[in-house]
Amino acid sequence: MGLTASGEHRTVSYAPESQEGWVATRLDFLVNWGRANSLWPMPFGTACCAIEFMATAASDFDLARFGMERMSYSPRQADVLICAGRVPFKLAPIIRRIWQQMPQPKWCISMGACASSGGMFDNYAVVQGIDTIIPVDVYVPGCPPRPEGLIYGIRMLQEKVKNERASDKGIRDEMEPDPSSQLYIPPPVIDELGEPFGNSVNQTRSGL
Amino acid sequence: MARAYFPVLMLFGFVLLNGLLIIGISALTIRGRPTPVKQQAYESGIPAIGDARERFSVRFYLVAILFIIFDIETVFMIPWAVYYKQLSCFVPLVNDVCPVGHISFFGLGEMLVFMLILLVGFVYVWKKGALQWD
Amino acid sequence: MSRFEVVRTGASAPGAQPATQRNVQHRGGEANTSAKALQDKFPAGVKRVEVIWGETIVYVDPAAAHEIIRWLHDDQSQQYDFLSDVTAVEYRDAEVPIEIVWHLRSLPYRRFLRIKAQLPKGAALEIDSVMDIYKSADWLERECYDMFGIRFRGHPDLRRILMWESYKEGFPLRKDFPLRGRFSRSEQLRQALAQNPENRYSMEELTIADAFVDLPQDMRDRLSKGERTGE
Question: What one-character DSSP code corresponds to residue B51?
Answer without folding.
Answer: -
